Amino acid sequence: MNFNDMQALSFEIKNLHDKVEIYSKNKDYVYTDVYKSWIVEYNHLLDKYNALANLNITHMSFNTHDLSSTQKTVRNTTIEFFLNNLSNLIRKLESDIEANRLKMAEKKIAPHQMRKCFKLDISGCPINPQYQRNKIFIAMPFSAEYLDNVSSI
Q: What is the tens place of the pLDDT at every residue in 30-46?
């Protein structure tokens, strides 16, 4: 996954979410053609996400039971469901971006520099230590289980 493409897609989806939320709060009704345009935009963004993440999330479709009795406007529950789908997609995308960011950070540190950071209890070291020729640092945990190692020094 390309990190920059994922961030751009996240921005587009958040814009769609904000547009839908603002429109639905400022208007008494959401008309059918407006809702259809939102679905088309959502499905287009979903296609981008599926391509980036190698997923197959199904498209959202337009159904007549989503409409009011006059068939000219969309039910409020349908708009809430649509906003909920957008929010879930945003959370999933942000999770993917964070996982991708962590992978990129891990690659910056050469694996031979530090095997484990005891302070943070993680593999590798989050800080790339400065190389100083002819200097060494030795660390040993102070615990009773390591006493036999101390006596041999």
A: 999 999 999 999 999 99
d(CA 17, CA 61): 17
Long-range contacts at 77-85 (CB < 8 A, ≥ 24 apart): 78/35, 79/20, 79/24, 79/30, 79/35, 82/20, 82/35, 82/38, 82/39, 82/42, 83/17, 83/20, 83/21, 83/24, 85/42, 85/60
Model pTM score: 0.66
130: Cβ contacts below 8 Å, ≥ 6 apart:
none
CA distance 146 to 25: 65
Determine whether 35 is exposed, middle or buried from the number of CB atoms within 10 Å of its CB (0-12, 13-18, 19+). Answer: buried
